[in-house]
Amino acid sequence: MAQEQSQPAGPSGSIELSNDRAAITAIGERVIEAAERAGFSEASRFAVRLAIEEAIVNAFKHGHKKLGKHETIEVEYEVTPEAISIVVTDKGPGFAPDDVPDPTAEENLMKTSGRGLLLMRAYMTEVSHNDAGNQIRMRYIRPDED
After folding, report:
1. Can you give the pTM of this predicted structure?
2. Residue 75 CA neighbour count, 13 Å, CB half
3. Which long-range contacts (CB under 8 A, 24 or more apart) does 1-6 make?
């Protein structure tokens, strides 16, 4: 179950999230509702929702692979009229993003891993990781046509 950390519902927040589909959906909805109130288009909201869900699912699936089911991740977000920023931090050992095989390379087309990171990079304006590799920072800058 998701637990708030002293942040009111609104255009920014920080939440400790458990590996629960309903909780993952709820944080995505919260960010998307704030984006809608800030005037982001449906296409922009789709891109951000996909990136958030991919980042959270990857944190649990890969980052917490060898950790207990009770471990939580932290999701921070901020929505302004100009941009949406999201930070997802897990408690795992991290990884080297540059070592993830290119899922579009012929030898990787049948593999099921690597696509989430590709999608996040495709849909978000900026994607970066901390040095430890257990935190992803994403930013979506409002396109001119929004």
Report:
1. 0.84
2. 27
3. 2/26, 2/27
